[in-house]
Amino acid sequence: MKILLTGATGYIGKRLLPFLINQGHQVVCCVRDKNRFHSPLEFQKNITLIEVDLLKQETLSVIPDDIDVAYYLVHSMSGSADNYDELESISAENFVKKVNQTNAKQVIYLSGIVNDKSLSKHLSSRKKVEDVLNKGSFATTTLRAGIIVGSGSASFEIIRDLVNKLPVMITPKWLNTKCQPIAINDVLEILSRSLLNPLTYNQSFDIGGPDILTYKEMLLAFAKAKNLKRYIITVPVMTPKLSSYWLYFVTSTSYKLATALVSSMKVEVICRDNKINGILNINPMSYENALSKALIKINEEKIVSSWKDSLISGRFSANISEYLKVPKKDCFIDRRKKEIENREFTIERIWSIGGETGWYYGDWLWDLRGFIDKLFGGVGSRRGRTNKHEIHSGDALDFWRVLYANKEQGKLILFAEMKLPGEAWLEFKIINNTLYQSATFRPKGILGKLYWYAVLPFHGFIFEGMLNKLIK
Question: How many angstroms separate the Cα of 344 from the Cα of each of 102, 275, 337?
Answer without folding.
Answer: 49, 54, 17
